[in-house]
Write a structure and sequence with these properties.
This protein is α+β, with helices and mostly antiparallel strands and 189 residues long. It is 22% helix and 13% strand. The protein has 6 helices and 5 strands. Bound molecules: iron/sulfur cluster (SF4) (2 copies).
Length: 189
């Protein structure tokens, strides 16, 4: 049989030696590992008193963006859901009514949009797939909870508030921002 990794070990059922039977060398070996770690720099921090510094492109809680005038950018095309490897995104599309132009940017919009945060692996592929620059991952943390249902994030948690916009410009490289200035892309403002 072909081995998939180099880590497999052949287990033999040979008789244990006296030293193996009294377990002392194994216990001492374990204690030595513990002592060694006591003098190493701790890998953990005392959260929440101390917080780690986040990377500028940390991928956390998603945001559904609005355009300059405050209308929702998402047009419920479904590309983010199709590109999601965890199948975490679901949505229901609806048609925009007359008089709702200030609410939704295009004729079609997401009446419901949900992300299952327990399924999400924060890969960022939804952000990359979106042709409308509607969805971004941010540096906000998805907070813990006791019930599974509370991890289904709907539009109430995802769409950015009109009066408290979420800045995602730092997530985009200088090259991308330059690219977006191209005349043929100005319709997507
Ligand atoms: S970050 Fe990845 S896993 Fe999470 S919703 Fe987006 S595409 Fe799916
Ligand atoms: S977030 Fe973007 S990719 Fe997803 S449905 Fe809306 S417009 Fe399409």
């Amino acid at each position: 049989m072909q081995a998939l990794t180099q880590r497999s070990k052949i287990v033999s059922d040979k008789k244990m030696t006296f030293l193996e039977r009294i377990y002392l060398p194994a216990i001492l070996g374990g204690v030595m590992i513990t002592i060694k770690h006591m003098f190493k720099r701790s890998a953990t921090v005392r959260y929440p008193e101390k917080e780690r510094e986040f990377s500028e492109i940390y991928r956390g809680h998603h945001v559904l963006k609005r355009d300059d005038k405050g209308a929702e950018r998402c047009t419920a095309c479904g590309l983010c859901a199709v590109s999601c490897p965890a199948e975490a995104i679901t949505m229901v599309a609806a048609e925009r009514n007359k008089g709702e132009e200030n609410l939704y940017r295009e004729e079609k919009y997401a009446a419901t949009y949900e992300i299952n945060m327990l399924r999400c692996i924060f890969c960022g592929l939804c952000e990359e797939a979106c042709p409308k620059e509607a969805i971004f991952l941010t540096d906000r943390i998805v907070v813990t909870d006791y019930g599974r249902d509370s991890f289904i994030y709907g539009k109430d948690k995802l769409v950015e508030p009109v009066d408290a916009r979420i800045d995602v410009s730092k997530r985009q490289t200088k090259e991308v921002l330059e690219f977006k200035k191209l005349k043929q892309l100005t319709h997507n403002k």
